[in-house]
Amino acid sequence: MYILGVILAISAGVANFMGQILQKKAINDVKVGDEVEMKKVVKKPLWIIGLLCVVIFTAVLSMTAQNFIGPALTPGLFAAGLIVLAFGSVKILGEKLKKEEWIAVIMVVAGIALVAASKLSIDTGLERFTDTGFVIRLSVASAILIALWLGLFYGGKKAYKNKSIIMSIGSGMPFALGNIWMFAMVDSIAELFAGHLSGFNFLIFAISGILMASTQVLGLVHASKTLATGNASIVVPMQQLPQQIMPIITFFVIFALPAPSIGSYFFITGGIICIVAGGFILGKRQASLESITANESSEPVQEAK
Length: 305
Known about the structure:
With 305 residues, the protein is mostly helical. It contains 10 helices and no strands. Helices cover 82% and strands 0% of the residues. Mean pLDDT is 77; it is low at 286-305.
């Protein structure tokens, strides 16, 4: 079952990243300068197909994977789809990746592999919600993620420099939040279908369902707007940063579990370093692209003067 969970998590990542590439292609097709009219975008068949990949296929595969390997390993394996992103951005979107960007993508993927090798699997269950400490830790983590999400995304929209970087990281927060609540929804659904129709199970289902639905819908809206601000090959990996680091916090802080072995600490540390370093390189490149765009747009004005 562990291998099946790994395969499902990787498949979810492939579906998600391919869907985002298709959505970005649809955005590029209607984009005029820096302006994007979302009313036209949402009518594009390519955007709709991408949406189905992200919303339906990714959700089903992710939830099934979490049922087998838990919320800590799934996001790491999920981001293996960055390989699809790299090739898809070049072939489908016509974007160019420089040598350092390829290295950055490889670093992120290597980091994901190291995190997965740490074997931070979690045996979930609704009985954890009877632990007051767990509920407090989960609630605090959720509140912090929501605050970071809103602050970074809306703050990024008003930012002049590094706009897409800030928005990208911010738009990854709702999905990170959804990842840590997905187990609750999956487990509560399983309990309800098993005939355990208690008020407790319905309450957990309602809370997790509302959080999952809102983070997915609003997260997709924010992700689409963020894709319009920069290259998908750079923006999407930046979105992955909070989603990849959060599982470590989920395992050690929220669930308060010990590492399976001493080697797990080395894998986790190496994984975080690779992911953060790769994201930093991609972010630096995105900042350069924004600077070039800004300079080009200002040239006609200067000539007019």
